[in-house]
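Exercise 7. Given the encoded structure of a 165-residue chain, write a plausible sequence.
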C-alpha cells in the first residue's frame, strides 16, 4: 500500500467519524429516527441502537411461560452471607420488692403482745403481727429485734431491724 492510499483511507475514516459525531450530538432528532427504524426492522435496530447492558435479574425480560416478577422473589447474589446467629437476649431480671418505706420509731410490750410504732409516708402507725398496711404489706411477725413484712405482690419477705433484742 502506498502512502497516498493510506492517507486517503485515513481521511475517509475521519470524515465518517465527524459525520457520526454530528448525528449523535442531536439526541432529539436521533430518537425518532431509531424508533422509526425499529418499526421496520425490530431485531436489527434493537441490537444496533441499544447496546446490551447488564440488567438486574428483576428487570430482565422473561420468556413466555416463566413466572412473573410478583410471584418470584428476587435474590441478590452479592448479599452478605454469614453463619453467625445472634444469641437470644438474656432473660429479664427477676422482679424484686422495693425497699421498705417504713421507719422504726419504737416498741410497746403489752399483755404478751408486742406492738411497733413506725412512720409510713408521714403517718405514724402502730402495728402488730397479722396487720395489713396499705394493701401491699402484711406484718408476718414482730419480735424483739426485728419486724418481718411480706410484700404481697411478689410474696417476698423483708425485714425491718428494730435494734432491740
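Solution.
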Amino acid at each position: 500500500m502506498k502512502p497516498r492510499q493510506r492517507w486517503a483511507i485515513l481521511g475517509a475514516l475521519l470524515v465518517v467519524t465527524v459525520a457520526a459525531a454530528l448525528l449523535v450530538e442531536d439526541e432529539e432528532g436521533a430518537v425518532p429516527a431509531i424508533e422509526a427504524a425499529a418499526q421496520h426492522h425490530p431485531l436489527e435496530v434493537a441490537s444496533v441502537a441499544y447496546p446490551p447492558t447488564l440488567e438486574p435479574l428483576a428487570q430482565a425480560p422473561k420468556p413466555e411461560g416463566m413466572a412473573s416478577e410478583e410471584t418470584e422473589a428476587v435474590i441478590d447474589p452479592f448479599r452478605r452471607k454469614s453463619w453467625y446467629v445472634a444469641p437470644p437476649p438474656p432473660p429479664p431480671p427477676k422482679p424484686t420488692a422495693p425497699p421498705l418505706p417504713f421507719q422504726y420509731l419504737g416498741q410497746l410490750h403489752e399483755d404478751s403482745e408486742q406492738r411497733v410504732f413506725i412512720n409510713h409516708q408521714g403517718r405514724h402507725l402502730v402495728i402488730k403481727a397479722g396487720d395489713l398496711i396499705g394493701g401491699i404489706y402484711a406484718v408476718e411477725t414482730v419480735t424483739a429485734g426485728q419486724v418481718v413484712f411480706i410484700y404481697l405482690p411478689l410474696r417476698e419477705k423483708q425485714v425491718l431491724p428494730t435494734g432491740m433484742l
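Remark. Helices lie at 3-25, 27-40, 42-49. Students should compare their own answers with the one above.
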